[in-house]
Amino acid sequence: MAPITGFALQGQLQILPATAQLSTAQQRNTQLAGSRGSLQCKQFLSCRSTRQQAHLKLQRRESTTVQAVAAADQQIAKSTSTKDTWYAVVSNAEFMFNDVQNESFAEQLRERRRYFGEQNREPDFYLVPNPAWLDDKFPDKAKQVRRPSAALVSTDKVWITFMKLRLDRVLKLELGELSLEEVTKSTGPLPEFKKPDKWTAPYPPYKPGWWEVFMAGQ
Amino acid sequence: MATATVTEQELGFKTMRRGIKEAAEENVLTPRFYTTDFDEMEQMFSLDNNPNLPMEEFDAMLKEFKTDYNQTHFVRNETFKKAADSIQGPARKIFIEFLERSCTAEFSGFLLYKELGRRLKKTNPVVAEIFTLMSRDEARHAGFLNKAMSDFNLALDLGFLTKNRKYTFFKPQFIFYATYLSEKIGYWRYISIYRHLQRNPDNQLYPLFEYFENWCQDENRHGDFFSAMLKSQPQFLDDWKAKLWSRFFCLSVYVTMYLNDHQRSAFYESLGLDTTQFNRHVIIETNKTTARVFPEVPDCETPEFWEHMEKLIVLNQKLIDIGKSDAAAPLKALQKAPVLAGFAGELLALFNGKTMDCGSYDFEAEAAVVY
């Protein structure tokens, strides 16, 4: 929470003995600092020599062979174009990719990609510019989406519900059973967005094209 | 160690005991601890009383919090202490103040969410667990900041604060508006500092800021949860009273930040930021985010809006100067009266300024929405 004001009633409160609970949290922080830091935190990895890094990665691989095998299986399954149930949020591409408000969208996708990497999981989400299924499968609703359009697709229904809550100004759709190829099929690349007329931030905007790493096949 | 102790005294901070800082005096602009009507909260989210309470977004939030993206993020390294030691002179004082304010604000979230998690357990286990997981995040943040304070040899005794600080009472409705805004403005503050420093690494005086990108994703998610809370209680979003309260809370939060930060512009300047530009950006973007759920927000992009905000800074400075002067108390009160009247006038002008109707697309007629 950030500091905020209150022009409201003042009241004394008699709640919880939070001292004990906080000290548990503090202990956890301390433990983390001691035991888990170097292996998992990217910032730390980047300080180490390449050889050390390779060694660490190797250790991690060995300790998670089972997960890695599972991930490899997943990949093979995907490549043979089995069908999954997909969910999506879709909107005007400029809103999704080029609005200052949604720079946090890029941060979220990077965060999720990092997390999946830590878990040795294949990503279950992709960005799709001008998704072909929009007009093909939803000719009526498609009229409500300004073009060029863009979509976030995922097999994780619950996460798409969360992303709809976050972005709000997006259309949520259940796409049904599609292969990865079908769900990521695009009717064309995005044009170059023009720079925002007004720029209030004390830093330059995100580089156009940040979204490309989240497209299938990247 | 001995030299450090001298330094802390020279900075003018009072200590409770060695290495433990006495909390800063409270005033209308300091971060607060909150309490609310827990019975009303229980009733509002009770699944027995409200079997039709929409749970889909809460379920989605719970999964997101359980994922715990930042479980291993808050790990300190050896650069902290050294960086703290190299911050000397006036910058040291404002750094400590910044850390204390941030730590108090995060800890305030911890206390409120922890208690809500405890109280809602029986009536709505999902919402209760979300609160508990958010208090986990806040405890991490507060603990991390307090460790940073101990780099400056002045940690806070949070247990003592819990028992001795005043709590501000807000009805649940107002807790929703206030915490939503405070989480979202927290996100915009942290991310703006982070992105600025990422592009200007020479201004990276202290490693804390390197943690802000992942850190503030927690703030953003907390805000989303309050968005879901508000959407589950349409009575707080759909009438003229809701609009007035929305406007009021937006302005309170924006004015508080603007005045606070301008009182401490040296801090933001030490990071290479222009306080006014930084603040205006944070307010404009927080306002746009808020428009995704509040039924009304002030229009922060008119010249008049910023004229009133600037006048508030001048008047606030006058009040501070009068307070610091050697005049007798009754004389001070006399001197303050016209300034306070002017202050109230500016606030009123902001409240009566241009506004925008807004809110979640979920409440619009579906066919009319263009995405």
Automatic annotation (TrEMBL), chain A:
Listed InterPro entries: Ycf54, Ycf54-like_sf
Short name of any one Pfam family annotated for the protein: Ycf54
Listed PANTHER family: PTHR35319, YCF54
Family from the record: Belongs to the ycf54 family.
Protein name: Uncharacterized protein
TrEMBL record, chain B:
GO aspect biological process, one term: chlorophyll biosynthetic process
Organism: [Myrmecia] bisecta
GO molecular function: magnesium-protoporphyrin IX monomethyl ester (oxidative) cyclase activity; metal ion binding
Native organism taxonomy: Eukaryota, Viridiplantae, Chlorophyta, core chlorophytes, Trebouxiophyceae
Reaction it catalyzes: Mg-protoporphyrin IX 13-monomethyl ester + 3 NADPH + 3 O2 + 2 H(+) = 3,8-divinyl protochlorophyllide a + 3 NADP(+) + 5 H2O
EC number: 1.14.13.81
One Gene Ontology term, aspect cellular component: chloroplast thylakoid membrane
Domain of life: Eukaryota
Pfam families membership: Rubrerythrin
Keywords annotated in UniProt: Chlorophyll biosynthesis, Iron, Metal-binding, NADP, Oxidoreductase, Photosynthesis
UniProt pathway annotation: Porphyrin-containing compound metabolism; chlorophyll biosynthesis
Name by which UniProt lists this protein: magnesium-protoporphyrin IX monomethyl ester (oxidative) cyclase
Cofactors, names only: Fe cation
Domain Rubrerythrin diiron-binding: 97-229
